[in-house]
């Protein structure tokens, strides 16, 4: 029971006891001093009477009334051991009255000697069977001793016989002793209904509301009571902390969560302003600052969470475990996953999912797999609620499988990730999160049409879901559904502007509206190729403007090529401009150019386009006047060519694709060339940071004219299977540094010159930064026959794509 309730009980008993003390003193004492000592004891000054009794006890045995007085007053003074000692000396010598027995029973109860206490309560009840105070004390002790069944039945009998406020308090005490705080709250609420102004009832109700985390009513009630300042501060902190908990509930809408978080922050600011100048309130100020971190986190003010945490940590005092979880979440949102993982590791029991994401984003894949494996091993499919024979689905089981799917995606095991996510989505069709997760895996495999269909199924369940709209926006971007992409992004940004995932989506949209500069080329280091010549150099560049009317982008560029041949140096300067069009499943470019290659300026033109029938099939082609594929040596000798190409691409997923190409050219000297090509990719090996692909390549060509000043075999054929490996050296979110190694060995056949060996090697590195820079450099070497002579080429190629 609360201290207020015991005070109420003591006051009630003390009046009755005082009367008996006066009676016994006046009847047995000859000295008026005893009467005065009794009066002082009633007023709380117990030392005088207790000292007097102790002295008298050393001189001669006390009478029964004096022993009873000693037992009672020593009990008032909290001297439980003294009460027991007096009882053990005198109870066999005299028949001590009920008031003394009760004092001893209470002392044994305080000393947690339950059997002795209960025996004395039962003795006192035999002496005064109708005494309600004795019966309630007995019930309290039964509850303290863990005899809950007897205590509960006796307390309920009291309430049924006389439903007073006191009896409901007794019942509440029994419920609370069993840990059933809600039943206790119900009982003490009934007590309040019986006597709303009773101070002991108010105190118990305040404790019950605090225990059951109902701080707002508790705070309101406390304002009608004369509580110590430290108790009031504790209730203020509890009420503010409740706002923090409410702000973190996922069931609330984004706007409402922010409003609650703002209310919590305003309340903490007010409390800190009130308490910071009070020396004894400094611990409460620190606790307010700690709990305030939760409100800052809910408000997405991640940098402030971390800075305030560092400030609090500087005092060297220990931090509660829940603070580490908050700060780790903020660090994860600030893209500091290594620090977040270290903090999450301090309290893994309740932050497994977030700790998993910190491990993934830290590229610590073994740690992430360990977290998932532990969850799966220790999580049954179904659980039983206490007292229910009906099994319920285990949410933690589902979470563990979702995390496994994310792990598989992050470690490039996309086929297994797709199989798992599809199984989960199909076996729980009413779970929107699983549909969205499956769509994300499909999008990662380069299958946006399939992802779109999966998101359409998810949309039926909750069309306004933020995670759904975000994923739909990314898929719309992949499909070039620009209007849909803009509308979805606008809605997500309007609803959750502070969310890191929203800011990432908004940046993706901003990048699309930037200028784009594309540069590529190569430089021959040592070459004797009859196609490119020696000291060859090519440069291609194009600058694209921001989108106009969603689908159009203007561009302008400059291309340059040069090389030295037996007959002299050749070059080509190409100034160009045009427009790009993109729409769902379509891409097209139209370009006009002015070309200068030694014989004045000539007007060139190009039209290129492709169409996606679905995720797997693409048909594309181009038509050019003054084809960019015309050999530089032909241009050096005044020969131009018009041409084009048509191709069909089959794409299964990120691990397999093939493309068949046909490219005719019509040269100004009357030669007609037809080129054929088949290329592809087959994934051989995948790890989180390494991939190895087989790159088969077949090509052939025919020419109708042989006596020309450029390399022009009557017919030829090459088969050059190769290997392409990529290793990620460093990766941190959108910053990736990687290296590439390529190699191939094949054969080249040329009519009238037989078959020769083709060997190819390459090594390069690539840097991607913040989604606005993608640049690579590769050193290449190959050796192959031309007109029967094996010649080698060593060169370097480069490319760069910059958004600004």
Description:
There is one protein chain. The protein has 804 residues and is α+β, with helices and mostly antiparallel strands. It has a domain at 516-803: Beta Barrel (Porin), CATH 2.40.160. The chain has an 18-stranded antiparallel β-sheet that branches. A two-stranded antiparallel ribbon has the order 1-2. Strand 6 (568-583) and strand 7 (586-596) form a beta hairpin. Helix 1 (3-28) packs antiparallel against helix 12 (199-211). The longest helix is centred in the first third of the chain and has 26 residues, at 3-28. It is rod-shaped and about 145 Å long.
Write the layout of secondary structure elements.
Elements lengths: L2 H26 L3 H11 L4 H13 L4 H13 L3 H11 L7 H13 L3 H14 L4 H13 L3 H14 L3 H13 L3 H14 L4 H13 L3 H8 L6 H19 L6 H22 L6 H17 L3 H12 L7 H13 L3 H8 L7 H10 L3 H13 L4 E3 L6 E3 L1 H16 L3 H14 L4 H13 L3 H12 L6 H13 L3 H14 L4 H13 L3 E12 L6 E11 L7 E14 L2 E16 L2 E11 L4 E12 L4 E9 L6 H5 L4 E13 L2 E12 L4 E15 L3 E6 L1 E7 L11 E5 L2 E11 L2 E16 L3 E16 L3 E14 L2 E15 L1
Antiparallel strand pairs: 1-2, 3-4, 3-20, 4-5, 5-6, 6-7, 7-8, 8-9, 9-10, 10-11, 11-12, 12-13, 12-14, 13-16, 14-15, 15-17, 16-17, 17-18, 18-19, 19-20
Helix pairs in contact: 1-2, 1-4, 1-12, 2-3, 4-5, 4-6, 5-6, 6-7, 7-8, 8-9, 8-10, 9-10, 10-11, 11-12, 12-13, 13-14, 14-15, 14-16, 15-16, 16-17, 16-18, 17-18, 18-19, 19-20, 20-21, 21-22, 22-23, 22-24, 23-24, 24-25, 24-26, 25-26, 26-27, 27-28
């Amino acid at each position: 029971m609360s201290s207020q309730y015991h005070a109420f009980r003591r006051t009630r008993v003390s009046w009755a006891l005082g009367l008996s003390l006066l009676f016994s003193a006046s009847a047995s004492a000859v000295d008026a001093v005893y009467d005065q000592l009794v009066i002082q004891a009633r007023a709380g000054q117990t030392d005088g009477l207790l000292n007097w009794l102790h002295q008298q006890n050393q001189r001669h045995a006390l009478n029964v009334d004096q022993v009873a007085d000693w037992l009672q007053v020593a009990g008032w003074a909290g001297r439980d051991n003294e009460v027991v000692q007096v009882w053990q000396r005198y109870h066999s010598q005299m028949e001590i009255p009920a008031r003394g027995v009760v004092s001893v029973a209470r002392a044994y109860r305080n000393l947690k000697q339950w059997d002795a206490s209960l025996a004395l309560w039962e003795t006192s009840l035999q002496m005064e069977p109708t005494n309600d105070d004795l019966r309630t004390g007995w019930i309290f002790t039964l509850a303290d001793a863990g005899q809950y069944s007897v205590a509960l039945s006796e307390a309920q009998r009291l309430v049924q016989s006389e439903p007073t406020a006191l009896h409901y308090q007794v019942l509440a005490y029994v419920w609370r002793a069993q840990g059933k705080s809600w039943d206790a709250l119900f009982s003490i609420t009934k007590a309040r209904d019986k006597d709303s102004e009773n101070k002991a009832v108010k105190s118990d109700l305040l404790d019950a509301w605090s225990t059951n985390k109902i701080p707002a009513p508790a705070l309101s009630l406390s304002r009608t009571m004369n509580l110590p300042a430290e108790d009031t501060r504790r209730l203020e902190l509890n009420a503010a902390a409740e706002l923090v908990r409410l702000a973190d509930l996922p069931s609330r809408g984004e706007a409402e969560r922010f409003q609650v978080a703002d209310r919590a922050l305003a309340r903490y600011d007010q409390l800190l302003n009130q308490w910071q100048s009070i020396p004894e309130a400094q611990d409460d100020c620190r606790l307010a600052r700690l709990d305030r971190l939760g409100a800052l986190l809910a408000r997405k003010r991640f940098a402030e969470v971390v800075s305030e945490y560092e400030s609090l940590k500087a005092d060297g005092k220990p931090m509660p475990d829940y603070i580490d979880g908050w700060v780790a979440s903020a660090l994860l949102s600030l893209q500091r996953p290594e620090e977040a993982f270290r903090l999450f590791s301090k309290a893994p029991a309740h932050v497994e999912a977030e700790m998993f994401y910190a491990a993934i984003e830290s590229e610590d894949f073994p740690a992430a797999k360990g977290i998932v494996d532990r969850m799966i091993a220790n999580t049954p499919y179904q659980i039983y609620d206490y007292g229910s024979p009906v099994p319920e689905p285990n949410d933690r089981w589902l979470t563990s499988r979702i995390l496994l799917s994310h792990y598989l995606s992050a470690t490039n095991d996309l086929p297994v990730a797709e199989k798992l996510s599809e199984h989960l989505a199909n076996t729980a069709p009413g779970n929107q999160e699983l549909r969205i997760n499956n769509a994300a895996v499909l999008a990662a495999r380069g299958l946006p049409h399939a992802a779109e269909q999966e998101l359409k199924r998810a949309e039926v369940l909750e069309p306004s879901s933020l995670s759904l709209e975000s994923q739909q926006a990314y898929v719309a971007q992949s499909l070039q559904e620009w209007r849909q992409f803009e509308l979805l992004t606008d809605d997500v940004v309007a609803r959750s502007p502070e969310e890191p995932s929203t800011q990432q989506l908004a940046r993706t949209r901003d990048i699309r509206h930037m200028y784009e500069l594309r540069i590529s080329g190569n430089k021959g280091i040592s070459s004797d190729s009859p196609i490119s010549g020696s000291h060859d150099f090519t440069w291609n560049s194009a600058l694209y403007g921001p989108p106009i009317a969603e689908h159009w982008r203007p561009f302008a560029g400059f291309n340059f090529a040069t090389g030295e041949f037996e007959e002299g140096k050749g070059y080509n300067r190409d100034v160009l401009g045009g427009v790009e069009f993109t729409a769902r499943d379509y891409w097209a470019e139209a370009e006009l150019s002015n070309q200068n290659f030694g014989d004045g300026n000539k007007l060139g033109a190009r039209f290129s386009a492709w169409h996606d029938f679905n995720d797997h099939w693409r048909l594309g082609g181009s038509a050019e006047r003054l084809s960019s594929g015309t050999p530089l040596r032909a241009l050096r000798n005044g020969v131009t060519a018009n041409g084009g190409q048509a191709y069909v691409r089959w794409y299964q997923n990120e691990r397999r694709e093939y493309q068949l190409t046909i490219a005719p050219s019509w040269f100004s000297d009357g030669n007609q060339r037809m080129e054929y090509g088949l290329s592809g990719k087959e994934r051989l090996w995948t790890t989180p940071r390494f991939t190895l692909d087989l790159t088969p390549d077949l090509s052939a060509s025919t020419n109708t004219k042989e006596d020309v000043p450029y390399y022009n075999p009557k017919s030829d054929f090459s088969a050059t299977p190769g290997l392409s490996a990529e290793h990620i050296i460093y990766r941190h979110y959108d910053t990736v540094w990687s290296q590439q190694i390529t190699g191939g060995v094949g054969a080249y056949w040329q009519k009238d010159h037989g078959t020769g060996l083709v060997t190819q090697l390459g090594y390069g590195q690539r840097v991607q930064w913040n989604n606005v820079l993608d640049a690579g450099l590769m050193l290449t070497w190959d050796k192959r026959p031309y007109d029967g002579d094996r010649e080698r080429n060593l060169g370097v190629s480069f490319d760069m794509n910059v958004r600004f």
